[in-house]
Specification:
By secondary structure, this protein is of the alpha+beta class. It has six helices and eight strands, in the order H-E-E-E-H-E-E-E-E-H-H-H-H-E. Strands 4, 5, 6, 7 and 8 form a five-stranded mixed beta sheet that branches. It has a three-stranded antiparallel beta sheet with strand order 1-2-3, with helices on one face. The protein starts with 12 loop residues before the first helix and ends in a 10-residue tail after the last strand.
C-alpha cells in the first residue's frame, strides 16, 4: 500500500542516549539502506529488538506527535495527515489484563477523491496502530511512555513496584482511537 514511502522517525543522539539509559521510555532510530530510509529500529534498554517497516514508522510518527504532511492513499482518495500532539494515553485497570487506551486526533486534508473514504482510513489506521503497539509490547518496548502513565495510576511507588514500567507494557491489551479530522482550522502554505 504505502511501503515505498520513506517514513522514519527523527531522533537526536541525546534523545536516544537518554531514553536508552533511562527507565521511562524506549527509543527508536531510523533505518537506512544505501539510498533510502526504510523504517525504524525499535530499542529496549539500548538494544535493538525489532525493525518496523515504513507503515509502522508512519503510525509511530502519528502517535508520537511528529507527523507532518504524511501522504496516504485509501481506496480512490489521497489524504495528507499531520499530527503535532502526542497521543493521549489512558490506562483502564478495570479490565484484566489492563487496557491501554490510546487516542489521537489527526489533522487530515483531502487531496483528491471523496470524504467517504475517511471512514476506511480511520479503520485502517486504528487496526495498524493496535497491531503495531501489540507487536512492540511483545518485545517489552515502551516507545510511547505507557509505563509512566501506568505508574501514575497507582497511589504509591510501592504499589507499582511489582510492575517494572517497561515490562508492564507486555501484559497490556491495546485499544486505539485514531480520529482523522477534516476541515480543522489548519493552514497550509502554498506557492502561487
Amino acid at each position: 500500500r504505502n511501503q515505498n514511502t520513506p517514513y522514519a522517525p527523527i531522533t537526536e543522539l541525546w534523545d536516544f542516549v537518554s531514553q536508552s539509559s533511562g527507565t521511562t521510555e524506549d527509543s527508536v532510530l531510523p533505518i537506512a539502506t544505501e539510498d533510502t530510509l526504510s523504517g525504524m529500529g525499535i530499542f529496549h534498554k539500548g538494544v535493538m529488538v525489532a525493525e518496523a517497516d515504513s507503515e509502522k514508522a508512519m503510525i509511530y510518527k502519528l502517535l508520537s506527535g511528529t507527523a507532518h504532511s504524511i501522504s496516504i492513499k485509501m481506496e480512490t482518495s489521497q489524504f495528507n495527515l499531520t499530527n503535532r500532539k502526542k497521543a493521549k494515553v489512558n490506562l483502564n485497570r478495570s479490565t484484566f489484563p489492563p487496557t491501554a487506551e490510546i487516542s489521537a486526533e489527526i489533522d487530515t486534508r483531502l487531496i483528491y477523491g471523496t470524504q467517504d473514504d475517511v471512514i476506511k482510513l480511520e479503520a485502517y489506521l486504528n487496526t495498524l496502530a493496535t497491531d503495531f503497539l501489540t507487536e512492540c509490547s511483545s518485545f517489552s518496548a515502551d516507545i510511547l511512555g505507557i509505563g509512566n502513565v501506568a505508574r501514575a495510576k497507582y497511589l504509591t511507588e510501592a504499589d507499582f513496584a511489582p510492575h517494572n514500567s517497561r515490562e508492564f507494557v507486555k501484559v497490556l491489551n491495546y485499544s486505539t482511537s485514531i480520529l482523522p479530522i477534516i476541515g480543522r482550522n489548519t493552514f497550509y502554505l502554498q506557492n502561487f
